[in-house]
Amino acid sequence: MFLNYWILPILFILHDFEEMIVMPIWKKRYHEQISGMRHPYFGAVTNGQAFSVGVLEEMLIFICVSIVSYVMHSDGLYLAFLIVYTLHFLMHYRMCLTFHGYVPGVVSATLELPIMIWLIISYWQKSQMTIGRFIIFFVLAYAVMIINLRVMHKLMPNIQTKMVVYTKR
């Protein structure tokens, strides 16, 4: 049963591998288009290692959610994070439509979408929770992820700068 809770961190890291590998070269290739944006995709960071720090931190959140969900037998909490993770795929699709082309993360999001829909349906049926309880878990999961993304997008450029300074010593 414990292994059931590991699918979210595994799918997350597979998705973010696409972003970590492709994002730096994609940002170089489309620098002119991206630099004119009010909110450039993937924030101000251009270094894959600095971006990976944000990925690691988010991965730790998903691992903690998996452990807490398992220990507390909380399929509802896990379901909420499955849904929030899946909803972030919409951001990738919106970026592609706005950009009129490939944006890192969209391929893995598309490949994972049927799996995530199946997981959401399975955990919804398994949880047998009320709508009110689900809303509480969903708001908590959404708030954690939004706050985390905002904090990490502010920290990653600083991390990138420190990494550049470190390499020049």
How are the SSEs placed, and which strands pair?
Blueprint: H1 7-29, H2 31-35, H3 48-71, H4 75-99, H5 106-127, H6 131-167
Helix pairs in contact: 1-3, 1-5, 3-4, 3-6, 4-5, 4-6
Walkthrough of the structure:
With 169 residues, the protein is mainly alpha-helical. Helices cover 80% and strands 0% of the residues. It has 6 helices and no strands. The chain has helices at residues 7-29, 31-35, 48-71, 75-99, 106-127, 131-167. The protein is globular. It starts with 6 loop residues before the first helix and ends with a helix.
Task: Please sum up the structure shown.
The chain has six helices and no strands. The protein has 169 residues and is mainly alpha-helical.
